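FAQ: What does a multi-protein file look like?

Like this. Sequence, then tokens, then the next protein.
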Amino acid sequence: MKRITTLLFAAVIFAACHSGEQQPSAKYEEKKATLEDMERESPLKFLRVNASHHGNLLNQTVVEGEISNKATLVAYKNIQVQVSFLDKDNALIEKQKETLDDVVKPGSSMDFKIKTTHVKGASSVTIDIIAAMADK
């Protein structure tokens, strides 16, 4: 009788452990697909830019910085940035759009450098990411 009870108990434990392995896998794949869709549809939520600027001897404004990808599954490419030139009162003088062709992988960063003609009267420059495409 003890042997039958022990076998029955072992069978119940094995069945409980085995069925638990399949359910989290299916839920994990579903959550992963949902997260990937969200990252593909909203790249601006996952991309961050940090940049500085200076002038050079050729009368150009040089913007150097780093774009970070906080996504966990999706890489981004063709990142469009908008460079805004502001006067001393922070009033907008001019905007320029640039496209960065490099791919930023999930959880990594990319350095960039943009050279543009100096805008007369500009005392500061801001840079914002305005668009990006999910990489395959």
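And here is the next protein:
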Amino acid sequence: MNTAYRLDDVRHCYGDRCVVDVPALEIATGEILAIIGPSGAGKSTLLRLLDFLESPTDGAITYAGDVVDGDVPLAIRRDVTTVFQRPMLLRRSVAANVRIGRKLRGLDTKGGDTERWLERLGLTELADAPARTLSAGEAQRVAFARALIVEPSVLLLDEPTGNLDPYNVGLLEDIVRAENADRGTTVVLVTHDEFQARRIANRTALMASGSIVELADTEAFFTAPEDPRTAAFLEGDLLY
């Protein structure tokens, strides 16, 4: 198994509060990993560590075989792209927001990639609209197009469909599956939607109080959980 990430004794704390405590975790290259859990479990903070936006307080994160610590090389940063729950868009047109990643990388922005992604995400008619005038769902689709047009090796998704109607939820899930199948994109998905995890993830993990309670193949995770806390969570009980 090729490994995209390996975490060894990773802890991340804010003052006296430790929000992530993961002794060991491996994420395979080309897999879709879903992370579910209650609010405040540390899921979004874990994504920030995987995107190198923050460095762990303790422990080591290995990416593609190299330990990443401190000053992360630009090439590695460009390998990983995150779509946040509340994306920040530039005060430019929708099309300009979509192509900005390619422009910053010095790649061609005059080809058909922008138009292709606008069409794929149902944004063609909004291409010239100011991005700041979009609805939350439209902005989310722009953020997806902006992330995927640069063809990242790793796509990190933080509640990516929370603002979308069922049709567009299905659209984005289809695109994630297609990018994973066609390009081998590694996907780590944080979601409160257990059904979404079951639909698209190869493996699913439960986080609670900063730790990974259980990690298993998705079907086994939902049908035969081994940890009683996982079973309780899936039955709707609160975890602290």
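Q: Is there any per-entry metadata?
A: Some entries carry free-text notes. For the entry above: The chain has one domain: 3-234.
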